[in-house]
Amino acid sequence: MADPVALVALALDAAIGWPDRLYARVGHPVGAFARFLNLAERLGNSPKRPEGVRRGLGVVTMVALIALTGGIAWGIEHAVHLWLGRWGWVASAVLAWPALAQHSLYVHVRPVADALLRGDLPAARALVARVVGRDTERLDQAGVSRAAIETLAESFCDGIVAPLFWLLLLGLPGVWMYKAINTADSMIGHKEPRWRAFGWAAARIDDGANWIPARIAGVLMCVAGAGGWAVMKRDARAHASPNAGWPEAAMAGALGVALAGPIAYDGVTQIKPWIGREGRVAQPRDIVTALQIYARACLLLWVIAGGVAWLA
């Protein structure tokens, strides 16, 4: 039996997440990635540079970020194993724990459902605005419900399945290289003119890093939700992202609701295809059911992590 690094990291995250008090004191490790990317963007993404040069500098930025992150994580992991010997795996689990987001995702989405269920739409809009990028000021009850369910499904991949996948595959360097890539995509991997060239590499590398995890996430959602297979198979590729559509379509099918559709960003409405188009309008109780499916899918990841440790 191999050391249960991933299983212990999942348990730590589920039990305590990343505590607010700890965040207030030391921040979060992804803050280091953000500072690196902000500096690189200031130095390399001048609009005065030709688009090809900015794209090249974006590639250099991503190579440097991934190499530095992987090298530092490998060095730390090697050092703790030398220092602690056979107990070094415990330190590896603790160091991997902040890269997972089971607890955080649940505690950010559940209050949205609670606010809607008590009839406080303004509070629900404010709460869901913390976890989505779309405009929320004019969302009705169905729109808030849909936004919460979509971010829960998509973040199940980005925040849990993908980090765990890379942790199991490449150890501590793998999980933190993935977090660096995902942070870069969220910061600079956009299609707006400012980011299109410089962030091209970040977006493409993130697509590649999430390709397998997204499909695993969709399958887990279908198993945990006891359904959704047909909708996932049909609608997963309707999403603008090559990956986000898999868990979202699986969740839409499991709940029997319609997700995606028209969404407003910065005051501009974008017409996007519906996922689960024959489904009903999402309601607050659907967020609660989605959280139950999410919790069962997380438990399936625990089984997978335990099985890998047992069989390795």
Automatic annotation (TrEMBL):
Gene Ontology MF: a single term: ligase activity
Positions of transmembrane segments: 56-76, 156-178, 212-232, 244-265, 293-311
Gene name tied to this protein: cobD
Any Pfam family: CobD_Cbib
Keyword Transmembrane helix: yes
CC terms in the record's Gene Ontology section: plasma membrane
Recorded family membership: Belongs to the CobD/CbiB family.
Name under which the protein is recorded: Cobalamin biosynthesis protein CobD
Subcellular location: Cell membrane
Taxonomic source organism: Sphingomonas pseudosanguinis
Pathway the protein takes part in: Cofactor biosynthesis; adenosylcobalamin biosynthesis
Function of the protein: Converts cobyric acid to cobinamide by the addition of aminopropanol on the F carboxylic group.
Membrane disposition: Multi-pass membrane protein
GO biological process: cobalamin biosynthetic process
Alphabetically ordered keywords of this record: Cell membrane, Cobalamin biosynthesis, Ligase, Membrane, Transmembrane, Transmembrane helix
